[in-house]
Amino acid sequence: MALLVEKTSSGREYKVKDMSQADFGRLEIELAEVEMPGLVSCVTEFGPSQPLKGARITGSLHMTIQTAVLIETLTALGAEVRWCSCNIFSTQDHAAAAIARDSAAVFAWKGETLQEYWWCTERALDWGPGGGPDLIVDDGGDATLLIHEGVKAEEIFAKTGQLPDPTSTDNPEFQIVLSIIKDGLQVDPKKYHKMKERLVGVSEETTTGVKRLYQMQETGALLFPAINVNDSVTKSKFDNLYGCRHSLPDGLMRATDVMIAGKVAVICGYGDVGKGCAAAMKTAGARVIVTEIDPICALQALMEGLQVLTLEDVVSEADIFCTTTGNKDIIMVDHMRKMKNNAIVCNIGHFDNEIDMQGLETYPGVKRITIKPQTDRWVFPDTKSGIIVLAEGRLMNLGCATGHPSFVMSCSFTNQKVYVLPKHLDEKVAALHLGKLGARLTKLTKDQSDYVSIPVEGPYKPLVRVWSGWGNMRYWSSYEVDQILVSIRGCCSLVLRGCFMFCFVFPF
Amino acid sequence: MALLVEKTSSGREYKVKDMSQADFGRLEIELAEVEMPGLVSCVTEFGPSQPLKGARITGSLHMTIQTAVLIETLTALGAEVRWCSCNIFSTQDHAAAAIARDSAAVFAWKGETLQEYWWCTERALDWGPGGGPDLIVDDGGDATLLIHEGVKAEEIFAKTGQLPDPTSTDNPEFQIVLSIIKDGLQVDPKKYHKMKERLVGVSEETTTGVKRLYQMQETGALLFPAINVNDSVTKSKFDNLYGCRHSLPDGLMRATDVMIAGKVAVICGYGDVGKGCAAAMKTAGARVIVTEIDPICALQALMEGLQVLTLEDVVSEADIFCTTTGNKDIIMVDHMRKMKNNAIVCNIGHFDNEIDMQGLETYPGVKRITIKPQTDRWVFPDTKSGIIVLAEGRLMNLGCATGHPSFVMSCSFTNQKVYVLPKHLDEKVAALHLGKLGARLTKLTKDQSDYVSIPVEGPYKPLVRVWSGWGNMRYWSSYEVDQILVSIRGCCSLVLRGCFMFCFVFPF
Amino acid sequence: MALLVEKTSSGREYKVKDMSQADFGRLEIELAEVEMPGLVSCVTEFGPSQPLKGARITGSLHMTIQTAVLIETLTALGAEVRWCSCNIFSTQDHAAAAIARDSAAVFAWKGETLQEYWWCTERALDWGPGGGPDLIVDDGGDATLLIHEGVKAEEIFAKTGQLPDPTSTDNPEFQIVLSIIKDGLQVDPKKYHKMKERLVGVSEETTTGVKRLYQMQETGALLFPAINVNDSVTKSKFDNLYGCRHSLPDGLMRATDVMIAGKVAVICGYGDVGKGCAAAMKTAGARVIVTEIDPICALQALMEGLQVLTLEDVVSEADIFCTTTGNKDIIMVDHMRKMKNNAIVCNIGHFDNEIDMQGLETYPGVKRITIKPQTDRWVFPDTKSGIIVLAEGRLMNLGCATGHPSFVMSCSFTNQKVYVLPKHLDEKVAALHLGKLGARLTKLTKDQSDYVSIPVEGPYKPLVRVWSGWGNMRYWSSYEVDQILVSIRGCCSLVLRGCFMFCFVFPF
Amino acid sequence: MALLVEKTSSGREYKVKDMSQADFGRLEIELAEVEMPGLVSCVTEFGPSQPLKGARITGSLHMTIQTAVLIETLTALGAEVRWCSCNIFSTQDHAAAAIARDSAAVFAWKGETLQEYWWCTERALDWGPGGGPDLIVDDGGDATLLIHEGVKAEEIFAKTGQLPDPTSTDNPEFQIVLSIIKDGLQVDPKKYHKMKERLVGVSEETTTGVKRLYQMQETGALLFPAINVNDSVTKSKFDNLYGCRHSLPDGLMRATDVMIAGKVAVICGYGDVGKGCAAAMKTAGARVIVTEIDPICALQALMEGLQVLTLEDVVSEADIFCTTTGNKDIIMVDHMRKMKNNAIVCNIGHFDNEIDMQGLETYPGVKRITIKPQTDRWVFPDTKSGIIVLAEGRLMNLGCATGHPSFVMSCSFTNQKVYVLPKHLDEKVAALHLGKLGARLTKLTKDQSDYVSIPVEGPYKPLVRVWSGWGNMRYWSSYEVDQILVSIRGCCSLVLRGCFMFCFVFPF
């Protein structure tokens, strides 16, 4: 590939769009820090002890201003960091430039091709001949996937001498993955094995990535421990619910300037993301219709005054369609053909296969008119009517806006760090953010504490559940978790240990 | 005691306020049935097989119109039923009359004294010399408590010949409990032991009752299995969140006719009940201030634009105070003294000790003016200013209004019955209510089902957790639960078995 | 008629349901005073000067607790008062009892027949041989109507000797009116002429009553001046919008205990009343559909996310129907036949002809089952399915609940009094209520005041419009209004003068 | 000045930022047309008759995509158009390019200096030696102001030979105005007189511009008729209320990416703009505090649960400050000094003097850091803390976002055209937008129409008020207005006549 790594004057590698945007990025990072009290408090509290001293961290996570604050929190705690984005559209180029210049190795820009995307991922994982990172901060699981596929290919190669064959698959993206592994294999046939050896674990941010991990765990394919950050309350509720409530209208407005009031918005899925999206659309004056498979979620939607119908019932009447399911094949090209002229179709769930982009792209005679980057009008030849697809079916809040606001990401990101002791858990993350918002907590009296059997200092949700897999789970008490954390990898700092288990740690 | 049991022409026992209200009660029961599709579906589906044939069920649960529909569902499934209320103010007398006349033994009226209350509880438990009920439907745990205390006293008596001594406690309510047990002991020294022997288990509706059960479990004092209905989503979310969102304003308006818009409302606690209350007050136009001990709940309140402060910060500025904590000593008499004239103080949490009623009643020189039943103005001698206390500090939605609406209670009550197979769980309860609201669910395709590893028919939340106690828990898979259910008490029908475990059974 | 006037020990006339409820009424009046700062301030400010000394005031306005505070404000300012209700269901009997005992002549009880209703109206107008009241506080215009019809009949009688003939009309209510006039004529053939002579004017509270006045004005039939209180902002916005937002759910819950969340509610009309109703239903979790004739109001509904359809489109799908139009024939019996079983039908607009009660009552084979007073189930013979009609089609917030809360009524009622000087207007009414709600106003600087040409002390809306009729209007400046007020009826106090014009006085 | 007019190949003048953005602009104009059914319907209905044939129209109104659709509506109806923006930041450069290339003479770009701004205004008014435009579409009144000042200066020059002296004023912007007039005078001493002679009238969009017109009218200085578009319901409610509800969060998010939930937002002023802003902030999860001078507006805020305080009360606690008053000196530099670090300060009212920008700019030692265009951080030397000021204190929704969405502007702009017959009025504008939103209106029956005295076809609000000035007003009936419209300027088409009166025409 023609892509060349560049180096800063201090010799740190990077590949970004435009280094001259570093000053602008720095200004916005400084703004964001004021909005991210959780991360800033981590630096204040843990910085002096340098708990991440010597740790190598690779991140595959949207390279935004908020992520920049996370990266600089990690480096302030002593870590070395290499970073790529986990989405071809989600990088903010000024953020990437500032970090590349000042803090860490970055390989990311807005509008990567798929080929460039995987090149960046491989670069972020490559720490040289000594093996890979100690820790991966993954979002969607692509970095984790690359290592697993790499190890698999290396094993086959060791046994049979056979290189991976990109033509063995129809999936164009997987062809690229195989090519990259093939290239690596020819240079170092133990490259991914070395990574696996060094790796203490991965922390995963998303529902989708977590699901992948569970599936690997179930089949015994999982090569290293993982921690599910997605399911802590301060991540899932804040990132999914409040974050999407903020960023769906943001993305819609930036991409289309459409008036939301008076429109009919269909939200596919009513989990936390869907709840946030539906709330945003409703309060902006849209009429919201929900599609759901789960009767409990459906009943919750009804209790908020939202209609629950199938996509087929409303496809030709609605103005805005947004997928939030984490499942595939939600809006198919046959749905899109029946939509009103200029209906808006977007995805805030996870992968771009929630929307049948392939069906759309290959529809005979369909015409794509790019209004502006990440805003395309697709015109069907038979009806001459067009629909607006945002971010090419990928995450519209990252592609069309700037992702979640700093405050939300501070809640999510502080979780990376805060699993020192499980009893603090989420509650510590939440508490770190209250001062900024002027809140004052009530304290339990000793007498009340006894009455409800909850310690004065918390945790206020009594139960910690930890398990080692989806089908085959086991639960420990909060005390057991402490013991387990202590026993893992004595060489790691306590702070790191919190992240390095394949477990859920969250309040009941 | 001078209370006399009456009998219907068919010989069934009862004690209600006014049998002439039975027709009125019947009309409202018929109305409520239309609103309770879950229970009605249970009768349609399970009625013919009479799964509860021969079972004796005692209920201690607010004797409302909605409960009447539950009782008649149980009798339609074959059970015999005896009932009392679990709150001195919560009985609807026309509901009690209709049930007493038509379906079951009822001992309940609005405005019982504490002495009358415990007499009713004892009556509901007394199935004659053959022992007590097979199943208790408990709410708050008073029926469970009476049996436990009874067994304890019988044991002491058996060993030492000593009768319980009501003067041994300062608590006036507990004095009554001891008196009743003492009276029973003198008639039959094995009365409560027989009950315990026969009892297959108890299902408990409330957080508070569940907590008591856990505490007994932990100390080894729990005498029989129990099922926590409180924590199923269709109970906790619907009853607590949506139910209180409905019934807090209802109770306020019936009791005081106060304009909610423009007022400052303090909601103590921001769990599910608090969330429902805060939403109701906010949407009615009040400014809402939340008090919390838990930083995560506090952050959730802030994300909805609510202020989080301590009670002390706002005690002299707010117009409405509502406790939702499940803890005691939330609003003390010293708070009440500092409130504005005619500030409203009420409790929708659980026991009346959320509000310091004792402190209020014994405040020197305080004057109580009863505006109407369950609405009292208490005037402080020093300031001459008064506060309005609803339902004497007990649950205001039951004391001042009519409790949760039928639709909500249908969600809660259907849970009593639905634990046939855990994989149906909550989802079945929810699904039974969707038709009534005109909702249409989306179906997973086989392909999507594989992609997300969720069966087409559900359950959509993959995990079932079952445990046997608070501190000492264990979890089983959905399959294990099935096995356990099958193995318990072969003599019981499958339907009953679902209820008769001391376990949580709820979706992840 | 067999109705007999009773007398208090001091000789004041009354006819109420139950005098023993006077103490209860007094307690609730005292509560309401705290919620009605506008009226209480009037007493404080104007009481010492007794501006209404010697004035006779007749009121025809819902005899509620809030009206009781109004009546006692009038008597505190020096007036003598006689009162009836303007709706057969709206009286609160304890309020009537307290006023009858303590303050004024009252003829009103909950559940009057139409015959009793008009007897009460006639009693309230009858001040003995010296003629009628100086001022009428009218709501819906029935008192005004009676005088106009009386004068008309007297004129015919004077010319032709002919008495009014009740059989000359099909309208059963108008038959009663004619009977009463006929009876009066036979006693005193100048009774209504004397009333007209003495009467300085009427203040009218409702849109409907105002419309009647305009129609009489246009045809030259209006016999005395009138003031439209309905269209001041503190009346129309507060009473209509905020009042109905409060009292629609209140009435629904008291009458039916139905869960509003999840239901489909149809609001017929989207004026101020409809806006309040729709907001209440939406925030309680219902899905709201609006019917409208006016495209501007329709567009406003759409901007709030509400669907705008015709009644026919949704009649068989909705759960709750509420008319708010002020027009007739909105929900016809043919609509009602198509509704779901137990659909709720109610009216919060004005007259009971918004709902086709006559069509319902005369539907062949229809069966009426009274659940409780003001809550009827009507079952159609063909479908066996029934609908719930509230308050017999009359105002459900008065029939099923207790009308608007005190705070709202304080805004409306203070208008009765406050038109001393038009420049104060509504703004004074509003300002009197701010302190209670803890608000702090900003003051214009002199410089800002000049910049926007608004006086520092207000009025903040620059225009005062006054006119003398609907088709034939004329407008005066604020200054002119002052002059006119001063010139009318020198014998009246300044306070009264504000009320005694046929004019709108409200801010632009 | 060094600015040079450019010409298209067809010879039409223009001055825009970048003609290569014309294609992008065209795509977005086509999108916007789908959202602007009112304007598109005008072209369909009136296009064939070319009612504006031969009319010259000058516009001074934000040169956005939505305005582009308005301009092309005007040209489709036959007019020739010259355009400038009315705000130095509000131009969308791609919109300007598309219009300049395809439809009209445009002089506008984002980020004009004040000198450039007035140069553009003068260019838009200059139609060559034959005088100025027939009609001005003004927004804020700057085009109107320039003609008035020009005429004044020409009169002085004619009498005394004296040229205007820019140094006679301290106001830097007015110095520029005088310079431009001075330059013009030296070329053609009758330039502005000729404009005035030709001009049939001006339509004014904003409250501020309308106020200026009234002040000129009152002093007799107004030189030509004007029509107030601002006060039609479809303009004021939609543009002000719904438009700002949409665009305040849009601007905040684009400029700062700040999380709105959890923040304290102060909205200065609670008129229609303030109501829209407060609703947007509240529903996004902020806690909203309102400042007001008018007690009625204050009471409305309280009824929505908003706190009403003075700016001084909250200046150091709030996170976001937004002015909406139309008055000056709302947020002074002394307020800004006391704000929290990174508090956001913005104006969505009208002129930039709502915020004391001059005080800020001249504060000793203050440091301005431009994060990005229209987003500045101002750091105070004493506290080292900074505030974020948006759009340099000018309209933030235009400076930081893209102004109101197309749908709202379609409501506003269609008013330009629709005053053919006053009885259609606003209602026609509203009706033209209903179809797009899937609404179905209810029709009055003849019987209902008679009952409420409203024609079946509307207008549904019965009154039309027309007057000729603020202090000295007169009102006509709807019929009179028709007559007046017919009598004005027989040479103009009926469509134009609607616009060319100095009058309000709006429903009661």
TrEMBL record, chains A, B, C, D:
Cofactor remark: Binds 1 NAD(+) per subunit.
Pfam families: AdoHcyase, AdoHcyase_NAD
Entry keyword set: Hydrolase, NAD, One-carbon metabolism
Cofactor: NAD(+)
EC numbers, comma separated: 3.13.2.1
Biological process, per Gene Ontology: one-carbon metabolic process; S-adenosylmethionine cycle
Residues annotated for NAD(+) binding in this entry: 206-208, 271-276, 292, 348-350, 397, 404
Superkingdom of the source species: Eukaryota
Gene3D superfamilies according to UniProt: Adenosylhomocysteinase-like, NAD(P)-binding Rossmann-like Domain
InterPro entries: Adenosylhomocyst_ase-like_sf (IPR042172), Adenosylhomocysteinase-like (IPR000043), Ado_hCys_hydrolase_NAD-bd (IPR015878), NAD(P)-bd_dom_sf (IPR036291), S-Ado-L-homoCys_hydrolase_CS (IPR020082)
Listed PANTHER family: ADENOSYLHOMOCYSTEINASE (PTHR23420), ADENOSYLHOMOCYSTEINASE 2 (PTHR23420:SF16)
Family: Belongs to the adenosylhomocysteinase family.
Name of the molecule in the record: Adenosylhomocysteinase
Naturally occurring in which organism (per UniProt): Brassica napus (Rape)
Taxonomy of the source species: Eukaryota, Viridiplantae, Streptophyta, Embryophyta, Tracheophyta
